[in-house]
Amino acid sequence: MAIVTDTVSVQRFAMGLFGVQVGTVTMAQVDKQIDRTSLGATLNSYYASAFGAQTTAAVAATLVANLGITGAGVANAVAYVTAKLNATAPAARGEEIASIINMFSGMTNDAVYGAAAQTWNANVDAAAAYAGAANVAFGSVIQQSLTSGMDVLFGSSLADQFNADLTAGGNTLQSGDRLDGGAGNDTLHAILGTNGDQFSITAKTSNIEKVIVQAQALAADTGDNNVAGMGESVYGLQGWYGENMATNNVVKVDAGRMSGVNNWENNNSRADLFVEDVRIADNQITKDVTITMRETDPGNVDFAVYFDQNSLRNASASTSQINLQVMDTRAVVDGKAPLLNSPYGGFKFTATDSKGTSTVVTLQSDAIDAAQTYTQLVAAFQAAADKQFGAGVVTVSLGSDFTVTDTTTAQSVTGKEVVIKTSSAYSFTTPAGSGWVAAGVVPANSGLHTNFSQGSTTNTDPVTSTIILDDVGRGSTGGDLVVGGLSVGETSTSKGVQRFDITVQDNSKLQTINSTNNTLREVSIVNGTTTRVNNAYNDNVKDAGNLTVTGEATNNIDNVIANGNNQLPGLDSISHSVWGFTDVKLIDASTFKGKLDLDAVLSARVTDKYMTLNDASPAAPAADNVAFTYNLGTNDDKFALDIDASNLNSAGTTTREDFVLSINGGAGKDTITADILNGGTEDGSAAWYTNSKLNANLSIDGGAGDD
What we know:
The chain has a 13-stranded parallel beta sheet, with no helix packed on it. Strands 27, 30, 31, 33, 35 and 37 form a 6-stranded parallel beta sheet that branches. The protein is of the alpha/beta class. About 6% of the residues have low confidence. β6 and β7 form a beta hairpin. The longest helix has 16 residues. It has 12 helices and 38 strands.
């Protein structure tokens, strides 16, 4: 049992009666009073001054509520505390409250009060570790502030927030800082300018689940928003745009030692923010980390997140199955049940678990033996599989038809396969000794057919990032978003992220959205929750935020040059250009309720990125075709697509039938523009035109509405 110190006793008393955890200022005053008198006398004096005029029943109700007791246990608890206080002299009731709380803290295994006692003890532990100056409600977010020196801070079992603001000397998030959030869902909120030094800030954090960064400016206040000069803040890059691709005089913080972060948020920045060397836990995949771009300023205020290449991981699911065939062909010829005289009551095979341990398994039962139809056989095998492996591990279902010949009549008869399948947990094989197990005898005149085969498939998801866009550009046009890999092509051709799952909260306007090294293939866009109210120029519809991604912004104002329009590492002159999306084969916004305004290009690189030009089978040329699909939402949307003519051109002696385009407007009054680039002559003689006409591979459907 934990030792109860004066600090713990004071925190328990304050939490139980006052509902607060005591800050350092109050604790120092209480300690002085304890030193002058005693702990008991001090608690008695606080009770008398704050609660002496209240009835014991009222005090009991307050204590029981603050202890977190609810439901059926409340009445008995209030009655107990009231009785104890009534039996105690008024001058000693502070000590009695402490005694009651101590008893309650030990009731963690009680059937009625155990859960409340466990939660209470966790809150007490957090209060005992609380280092804030002010008294705050216990169980609330505990805030700690970093200093300009080296900070070593520990969180509690509750939700902690570590604040790293700017000081006159620069950043308070420094290389020597060590932060441990402990249990709970913890946050680091850092405002970053520049420290003026040419080294990376390598703060070490653990158990902090969310990092919010506000990138302010350089030392000379040269941000990238519309009201500042050229410059940028860089979070996590060592030397970009130089030998190791870095700018000089920028904020540089390496995230490689920041473990356990599940959400990287760029919030209210006025300068570019780069997060570099993002790493995930061994049991995570890339999509488990959320990238949030929230309320960044108008202008070329960019956000780039670069994962450690080893942290670019996807999910894969493998299935293993055995296909069973059994039929009484003579019975089927006679119009009777397909399993009428089947003597088979089970099937033997080998199951190998994820650790490589193999076990010979026989799924056998009276129900399998008694089954007369394939539906009955499926149900019987499913019950046997659940008993052997546990419910939900193995599924048994009807498979494909199979046709065999009855040996007596030579008639063709058709049955149904029974498929025994598992996903990931096991792999099934049928080595020598596997097969149907007979529980009965075979009739003298029968036509029994049996067979089995095994197979496996592996489905691999694309490497995916989870992205939230919320009021990017703050009512105007913001910058670029790049999420990809740390290796950006200078020394390798390493890939980035293949799919973005984007949730749009409040209206957001970006210039470009890309991954590194032209890796992005698929984009899903849905709506999230909105919070912004209307302004004079922009309407905000509840939970139907708009999204605009239309490429590099041009500035038509005389004598004005756009600030800080940097081509971010991992991009090139095509992906950082006049198109919002580059070489993406799927944009799915079919459920999107806000308004879309998107520009995209399918450049000459599409052929190498997606297509296999040599058909595997001359009889099936469409087997390797690639679908380029763009599904707009339910509102009045705009979509412009430029297609390089090489994607429609001839390839050797065959036509380019590999490319299949579909644009679907959905509901609303949509404006859809498709343009063929670099097509040469427009008299119908160009190869791309001939082949596109022959293959009829371009489809645009405006859908419902006046398009």
